[in-house]
Amino acid sequence: MSKDMVILALSCLGIVQALFLSFYLFTLNKGSRRANLFLGLAILGLTIRIGKSVLNVYLDLEPWQRNLGLSGILLTGPSLWFYGKALLLSKKDFLSKDVLHFLPFILFVTFSTVIPNNANPISYVIYILVFSHLAVYVFLSFGLLVGNRTEIRKQLGNWFRNLVIGTALIWLFYMGHLAGLFSFYIGGALFFSLLIYVFSFLFLQKHAFQLGKYNSSTLDKSTSKLLMESLKQLFSEEEIYLDNSLSLESVSERLKVSPRKLSQAINENEEKNFSDFVASHRVEKAKSLLIDPNYRNEKIIAVAYDCGFGNITSFNLAFKAKTKRTPSQYRREFGKV
After folding, report:
1. Of 53, 77, 197, 285, which residue is most buried, by most CB within 10 angstroms?
2. Model pTM score
3. Which contacts of 143-148 are long-range, i.e. CB under 8 A and separated by 24 or more positions?
């Protein structure tokens, strides 16, 4: 297979993956429907633009066809910005005046047959204006992050930041190519394919699926931190995690909050779910008991039960996941003689 065929195959796979991801987001009922819609539109806009890049290398496209591809950039910018608002600020209302942000895209598509695109000076000016439009929304999106950094939850902020950076890098590639800094035109399509596979991988992880899980929550960032401090204090002072019947509901009752808010606080501040958070404390306790001279003759299963684990299997799995050693190996290596 020739080099050109490999590049074409990789680019096309990225485009297909992006179309699949867009369609998936349009039909996704988890999290914020509005956020899913705008993210799908942003990815679709980039896909239209990148698809044009691929076709333009291997086919002789008409000016109106190139304009349709260029129009995707006008869809991406406002969609990315509104996605940030829906995700980070839980903006529920999309006002009729907000449609004006998509007017450049609508007009560009409508008049694509008459807009010049023939490598003349006017065409270059239009090209720069279109990408300047995207640059404005990239800056606005970064502004969302900076202006609301004290209120934005960490996971949401990191996810949106990465999306904006990815979009900005695509913008830089095409502007760099226009300025003559990059001669490999289809490189933008390859880079886009890489980004899409990275984003798709994240969406296959629970992290991305849970981004909008707490969008309707009234628990703000500062209250979330205070709740987390109360939980850690409760675990430290009373060691309630040693109870193998401990549940999210029982702990939330002790702290006088709803299980949902407690789960949210753990997820946002520790990037763990409740079970993992409890297991990490139990493992830390087990590490201290395994090297305690008073426990030298105790069996591993006794240590497991004393630390709150219900069976030896779950103990071994949790312990090795955290320490990279089995309990027996840890005792031999660090146990006091």
Report:
1. 77
2. 0.69
3. 144/81, 144/84, 144/85, 144/88, 144/89, 145/84, 145/88, 148/88, 148/89
